[in-house]
Amino acid sequence: MTQRIPERTEHHLARALHPTPAVLREAMGQVDGFNAKFAVLITRLVGTMWCAYLFGVIALLGLGPALKPGGEGIIAWIAQTFLQLVLLSVIMVGQNVQSLASDARAANTFKDTETTLDRLDLHTQGGLTAILERLDAIAPPATPADAQGKAGTTHDEP
To answer: N or C: lower Cβ tally within 10 Å for the chain?
Structure first.
């Protein structure tokens, strides 16, 4: 079995951060109906760091009025505007990166399982079949008569 390097999330970060139009079309092609396609499009676009940056700028534009007398205040601005807008996209990006890394790990595990099962299969070449053939060449398989004959012998000889 080959040694595999563990899947690291930073390898999948670029794919999650910047979905290309081809990726968006592919994702929308996997669902049927206008509402489903629109939901997938919005989810894929909001789940990008570009959207998080845009939401951060929008939130910062609201900071000035929030700090003015009679405004909502800094605590309310942080809780209601900044956290909700910016963290929504950042959390979605994190989930996308973890999902891509998990898919890659699952694919590697599947390949390892296929390799192991193939080597244990008696009907394929190599693996366990090769070992059994080599053992048969060294010592032919015992017949039931050989097993009975050996059972009746004693080991009293010097």
So the answer is: C
